[in-house]
Design brief:
Elements: H1 2-28, H2 42-70, H3 76-103, H4 131-153, H5 163-186, H6 206-224, H7 240-259, H8 267-295, H9 300-314, H10 323-348, H11 356-374, H12 385-388, H13 392-422, H14 429-434, H15 436-441
Helix pairs in contact: 2-3, 2-4, 2-7, 3-4, 3-5, 4-5, 4-6, 5-6, 5-13, 6-11, 6-13, 7-8, 7-9, 8-9, 8-10, 9-10, 9-11, 10-11, 11-13
């Protein structure tokens, strides 16, 4: 009993001394505590690094196989080389200045020099502080988008553009089109961002990736001109097996593309993941039905095209609409993009080789506008036209589409004109007939065929 009394007395004394010392410290103005040390959330870190890898997989092998199977066999390596080389070149460009131009500065229209040569996002040497790693995660995830976007444009001029010109065009286009649009939408200070005057929802790249690349692809197809023999001789895909595998890889990679854009393994990521999957599935069904009606049978190429169209359309909306809306967007994309790749393309006669505009341009525009129609407050978004009866958010979406398309058209046109005058855009006729694999890269994809 005595020992318990002594223990209680000692504990009371320590407690009173602690309170007294605390009060004394406040009276004499004790120095404030050091700033809290930032530690990484291991779950979110693992999720975002995984999503970064999934988005990179979309370029190669995903896009490389999807596009590679659609061209003639004499050009398959040229398409794959474009994808692989862009993975290297755009990554280095992103580290040197691209990330800074996209996310630096506070100007609403263009980025700054805050992160040139990765300044400010490298290990800072402060013991235990891991704040730099969070910025580095954003850097690597967003860098994967910077890689794949010019790769999408390559589908418009496949089988006829000079490789060296493609490299210069992609680098300049990335800095002069992609980075400004990215800054407008995702930098936090952009005029289309959540703090801007015309906040437009683009959860994972409807404007930044698909509209910018799709519209630019159309300009490329028109200015470069048609392939030799286009419309006069058959030019079927040489290996739809590759295209099917590429589609599957794109579909899986798109979960990183869209769900990863939530920035964490949270409820927004779950919604985006499920909505993305349902939109792709609906796109498959819609395009297949359109072919069934028009041709009497569905094709594998059509099903693959429908899947990608659905994925493109849900990309800007994935964080603002629920999964059932995803089905509507995917189905709409399958129908509209089918007409874009058939009726519209045939009507105007341009040679968009792999339908970069028909799927990414038209699908991206459709998705951006429908985001303003179906956006729901239940996901933290401003309610769209259906939920509120107000057209304001839809108008912001339209403004973002027009601004992105205008910048892409003007800059792409100027770049191509300058490059055509200085380097030339197309390979020689003899080189085009022999194929770009041999004439541009000195190798063949199929030695025994």
């Amino acid at each position: 009993m005595k020992s318990q009394f002594v223990t209680a007395a000692l504990m009371t004394t320590v407690l009173l001394l602690g309170i007294g010392n605390s009060a004394f410290a406040e009276e004499v103005g004790a120095p404030p505590e050091a700033a809290a040390v930032v530690e990484l959330d291991s779950g979110n870190t693992a999720w975002m690094l995984t999503c970064s890898a999934l988005v990179l997989m979309m370029t190669a092998p995903g896009l490389a196989l999807f596009y590679g199977g659609l061209v003639r066999k004499k050009n398959i390596l040229s398409v794959m080389m474009q994808c692989v080389f862009l993975m290297g070149m755009m990554t280095i460009l992103w580290a040197i200045c691209g990330y800074s131009f996209a996310f630096g500065g506070s100007n609403p229209y263009f980025g700054g020099t805050d992160y040139l040569f990765m300044k400010g996002i490298l290990p800072d040497g402060q013991s235990g502080d891991q704040a730099w790693a969070n910025e580095l995660i954003t850097f690597v995830f967003q860098g994967m988008f910077f890689i794949i976007t010019p790769g999408l444009i390559c589908g418009a001029f496949a089988e006829r553009m000079k490789f060296n010109t493609m490299c210069v065009f992609s680098a300049l286009w990335g800095l002069l089109v992609y980075c400004p649009v990215c800054h407008w939408v995702w930098s936090g200070s952009g005029w289309l961002s959540s703090t801007g005057s015309f906040h437009a929802y683009d959860f994972a790249g409807g404007t930044v990736v698909h509209i910018s690349s799709g519209v630019s692809a159309l300009v490329c197809a028109i200015l470069i001109g048609k392939r030799l023999g286009y419309g006069q001789e058959p030019m079927p895909p040489h290996n739809l097996t590759y295209t099917c595998i590429g589609t599957a890889l794109l579909w899986v990679g798109w979960f990183g593309f869209n769900a990863g854009s939530a920035g964490a393994a949270d409820a927004a990521a779950v919604n985006a993941f499920v909505a993305t999957h349902l939109a792709a599935a609906a796109g498959v069904i819609a395009w297949s039905i359109m072919e069934w009606v028009k041709h009497g049978h569905p094709s594998l190429l059509g099903a693959c095209s429908g899947a990608v169209a659905g994925l493109v359309c849900i990309t800007p909306a994935a964080g603002a609409v629920n999964p059932m809306h995803g089905i509507i967007l995917g189905f709409a994309a399958g129908v509209v993009c089918f007409f874009g790749c058939t009726f519209v393309k045939n009507k105007f006669g341009y040679d968009d080789t792999l339908d970069a505009f028909g799927i990414h341009g038209i699908g991206g525009i459709l998705g951006a506008v429908l985001t303003g129609v179906f956006a729901t407050e239940k996901l933290g978004a401003t309610g769209g036209l259906i939920e509120t009866g107000l057209i304001s958010q839809t108008m912001n979406q339209v403004i973002s589409v027009v601004a992105t398309a205008a910048l892409a058209i003007v800059v792409t046109f100027i770049l191509l004109k300058i490059l055509d005058a200085t380097m030339g855009l197309r390979v020689a006729q003899e080189e085009e007939l022999r194929g770009l694999d041999v004439t541009q890269h000195g190798e063949e994809g199929y030695i025994f065929l």
